Model the fold of this input.
Amino acid sequence: MKTYTVNFLPDNLSVEVEEATLIAEAAQQAGVFIKNLCGGEGVCGQCRVQVTSGIAEAEEHAKAFFSDEEIEKGYILACQTEIHDDLEITIPPESRMEESQIMTGGATEAYGDSEAMPVVRKLFIELTPPTLEDNIADMERISRELRKQLGWHSFEIHLNCLQHLSDNLRENEWKVTATVVKDRNGYRILKIDPLDTTAHNYGVAIDVGTTTVVAQLVDINSWEVVGVEGTHNMQASYGEDVISRMIYACGKGGLHPLHEAVVKNINQLIEKLAGDNSIPLEEINVIVATGNTTMGHFLLGLTPCSIRLDPYVPTADVYPPILAKDIGIHIHPNGVLETIPNVASYVGGDIVAGVMSCGMADNPEVKGLIDIGTNGEIAIGNNEWLVCCSASAGPAFEGGGTRCGMRATKGAIEKVEITNGEVKYQTIGNAKPRGICGSGLIDCIYELVRNGIIGADGKFHRNRDDARLGVEDNIAHYTIAHAHETESGETIVITESDIDNLIKSKGAVFAAIKSLVDYIGLTFDQIDNFYVAGGFGSYLNISKAVAIGLLPDIPREKIQFIGNSSLTGARMCLLSEAALEKCMNISRSMTNIELSVYQPFMDEYIAALFLPHTDRKLFPSVEY
Done:
């Protein structure tokens, strides 16, 4: 079969592929990111690229996404165009993965106190040599000493530890260090090192998010976070949300590429952290990972297909501890990977870790946790009970489904103010505007309704005398940044359709919160605190989020950002057996309310499709 060379700009990366390979597949082979919301189905129009050398014909259906002028300039959809020539492909800014604000952590204090026992420990052992009166086997001699230190009756050991154990003990005058891990069945010896190596024991906490993967390298002895790194989840090449990735994994692409992508992410982060801190990979003995249910399945190579299908059943809620090398992660060969358990198909280990890390399950006060992304996941409870739910918020809060929406990357408008017809905005990185991210879109809606430019139904007052207000194809829009101000030279607007999508998204989140509060028989003023987790929440203006009806109207001091609570929880589990056990208990005891079959949710959702709500009594402090 013929092969052709494709060069991708501006990365200037080339790859040789077989004839008829899709451009999107060639980009994946070259390690080049192209935005892809629908997972290659050709229905989102996000993977637009320009053929600047060579011949590539746009597929007929794909032509609907481009003007005649754009087609003439060589624009095509990467996921729908086959390669039959040597090509040079330019990826425009709107289709690239730019530097973004990645939430790399929350609180960094150590978990517990001096009595906290980490998941993996190093114990120095100084043994008495055998005699005729005490001639038990070498392994039993080590087990006897470990029983004294740990109070446990028996210990499993890896074969490769036994193979050199006799020489190891005798050559080092019976002084060795045992690295042990506590799993659900007891203790297991991972390795036995010569002499005292207890000063070198590291672990990695990892949050496998749909959008980003973040890792913290932790000194287990001192509880110090040695370093933290974050990167975009490479799975985005197969779809930007979990549904499109599941469709890809369960269809034409298969599971392997998604599993391989996240493992590659993790290895790159660990190697960067270890290299920057001059720590050998062999000194990293444990990883604790957390993420939503789908990400957990992709990480461990479990089939995710039934998660999205009625009755929404995952392969597993509780994952077995494994050797990290069994899925290709590069730490010590006997190093272990623990994955935080899930609650349900759409309430994952990230929420379990968040509930544990913010202390909701430890205190009698009733508190709530809200994590807003493509899914809005909510948990409410205390040390006696916990309930949770998940509502599909759609991609609007992450910049999807809106004309000029984008993720929180360089050039995204993140803050907006409108005063007397003048628009002031702030972009990420103080760069020229490229689009509007989720926090900026919320600001836009608030400012538009506050200034009387739109009504409570989200519709523009079209007879208003305002130079920024326009109508195109009978869809009204409002200009946030003029063409001469933007990077692309195109006007950045928010349209009536965008506002409608955002109202649906905020309505789904608020309806989920309200349904959960009503289900447990409480009112908002009986909730002591609402914690808002995740990257989106950290850049949110609380007052504006309340004013559009996204968050409940409670005293603002009761709403607290807690950063990446999922990563914080993973780190706490790394440092404490008790924290890991608590996550197990939380996942078993938390009651999930499946909103798709819970009728009150639909009623609440319909009621929430106004600004801020059809029932203004729920928002007494909001005045426009």
